[in-house]
Amino acid sequence: MAQDFPFDHFLKIGSKNTQVNTFSPNIPINLGNNDDDNFQNDELTNINHEILNHLKTILPEMRFKTYFENNLELKSINDQNIVFEVKTAFIKRSVELYKEEIAKALLNILGTNFDVIINSKDLKEMGESSPTKIANNKSFNDIKFTLDLTPTRDDLQAKAQARYIEYVNPNQSGIIIDQFKTFDNFIVGPTNNMAQAASKAVAQNPGKNGKYPSLYIHSNSGLGKTHLLHAVANEINERHPELTVCLTTARDFMEEMITLMKVNKINEFVKKYTEKVDVLMIDDIHELKKKEGTQDQFFHVFNEMHNKGKQLIFTSDQRPKEIDGISERIKTRLQWGLVVDIQAPDLETRIAILRRKMEALDLYVTEDVLTLIASKIKTNIRELEGSLVRLKAVSELMNVEIEIDLVREQLMIPSNEQEKEISIEHVAKAAAQYFRIPLADLKSKGRNQDITKARHIAMYLARKIANAKHQEIGAFFGGRDHSSVIHAVNTIAEKLKVDTLYSKDINSIESNL
Fold it and tell me: Where is 247: in which H helix or E strand?
């Protein structure tokens, strides 16, 4: 792609501002009346380092590393402007989205407001390397030259990576109920069925007349807790439009409290939740740890809402009793209702999640690709779905098909990796090791309860993961007939619907495989 470049539109001659007014006292900077060109490199480096440290504390880790770390370089300062340089035009556009945050960081560090200017190194180099000799009989208005602005492969890769990062690390502040996160598109599997069923029951009959007036869901990040909160909110709004639903984060809850406390309106804060809200959902309640003042207000809000029979739902990455920095009285109240967890999804559920996301993205990939992705990303649904977002972006930007080799490249799976074919014996050994039972006992006729449970789980996994036939499984486990294997597989499938301990056992064995 090429375009004419008019000099007169961009080349301006202006005055040079040279005075630097204020700097943070913790940065060793010469405060004399120096031109910006006279600043020493180590002075600019110190300021740049302070700015990056500040940004690191307020931006998500992946976003900071992608756009700022080893990318943002301070080039010059005057009394009005501060100029940074980044590596590519794409990174420039991305960093410019955070100019306001950079300006805030500068105000905190230097005590002065600056206009932030972001330049791109690649466009600068293209401009410098272009021929600029001007004939004496031509004016600037007559001068034009051509720049090749076709994005490089690195630019396209960076753009695809940015789409992935935005998906995996969304901005969590100021929650707005997402109408597309519903129970209908929440994939249910053996590791999340209890949490889904409890959330559905709350949505159908919230508050004191329902089964669970207080619900607490915990899991590692990216396993569907927030999706369930939105699903509950959407269903309550549909079934009970007369109820007021509030979905917030612990951090936003705290910031709202602090804002009103500063203007002596803390009573309005408590009144809002206890009188106006019928369903309170707080995501990441563990963020209140070591925030004693916010915990005190939360304690009063919880008590009043609970006494009035209103619905309370909380999510966290830990059980209530495991959160350090939360008072015992709050831990106790968080455990008053139903406490359920979500474990990492099994392989079948991960593939089902990918199929649903594939449909939502209007994307087609083969079953081999879905299986490869699901076998490599096991513990985070957001990353699992984000892999398809990334592959779609790469496919569109680079105009390539989504094939196994592309998936290996983008997910950083070595192309020479030999996929391990899992056999019945692999499964049996993994189960025996996990339950600490000799393999010979699994193959024996023994009917001890522990041995029977381990044997049934091994048969279930041999059928599910090794895709072995019933007769083959029966033959391996002591010459049992196919009906015994069917009974074992069905028994475990039913247990998974009601007992999360079975889900944990199976996930652990599957991970070892």
Answer: strand 245-249
Residue pair 40/188 in contact by the 8 Å Cβ criterion:
no
Torsion sign (Cα): 63, 64, 69, 73: positive
Q: What is the DSSP letter of 148?
A: E
Six token digits for residue 481: 């007939």
The tens digit of pLDDT for each residue in 97-119 reads 778 878 877 777 777 788 889 88
Q: Is-contact 261 269, C-beta < 8 A?
A: yes
Contact indicator for 305, 277 with CB cutoff of 8 Å: yes
In the chain, the domains with their CATH numbers are: 2-129 (3.30.300.180), 193-341 (3.40.50.300), 347-410 (1.10.8.60), 424-512 (1.10.1750.10)
Question: Phi/psi at 425 (nearest 5 deg)?
Answer: -65, -40
The pTM of this model reads 0.56
**Cβ-Cβ contacts under 8 Å for 332 (sequence gap 6 or more):** none
The pair of three-digit structure tokens given for residue 372, joined into one six-digit string: 């490869």
Instruction: Please enumerate in sequence order all residues whose Cβ is within 8 A of that of 30, keeping only pairs 6 or more positions apart, or say none.
Output: 39, 40, 43
* pLDDT tens profile 17-33: 333 333 333 444 443 34
Residue 316: which H helix or E strand, with range?
strand 311-316
pLDDT score at 62: 63
CB 160 within 8 Å of CB 191: no
Instruction: Give the amino acid at 181.
Output: K
CA dihedral of residues 326, 331, 333, 338 (deg, nearest 10): 130
Nearest to residue 121, comparing CAs of 145, 154, 98? 154
Structure tokens, 304: 């009043």
Tell me the three state secondary structure of residue 120: strand
Provide DSSP, 343-380: PPP-HHHHHHHHHHHHHHTT----HHHHHHHHHH--S-
Residue found under tokens 């209140």: 288
Q: What DSSP designation does 206 have?
A: -
Pull the structure tokens for residue 509: 């064995």
Count of residues in the chain: 513
Determine whether 76 is exposed, middle or buried from the number of CB atoms within 10 Å of its CB (0-12, 13-18, 19+): middle
Q: Which helix (H) or strand (E) holds 45?
A: helix 41-58
Report residue 330 as tokens.
Answer: 């709050």
**Torsion-angle region of residue 309: left (phi > 0), alpha (psi -120 to 50) or beta?**
left
**pLDDT tens digits, 402-434:** 888 888 888 777 554 445 577 898 889 989 988
What are residue 415's phi and psi, to 5 degrees?
-65, -20
Over residues 67-72, mean pLDDT: 81
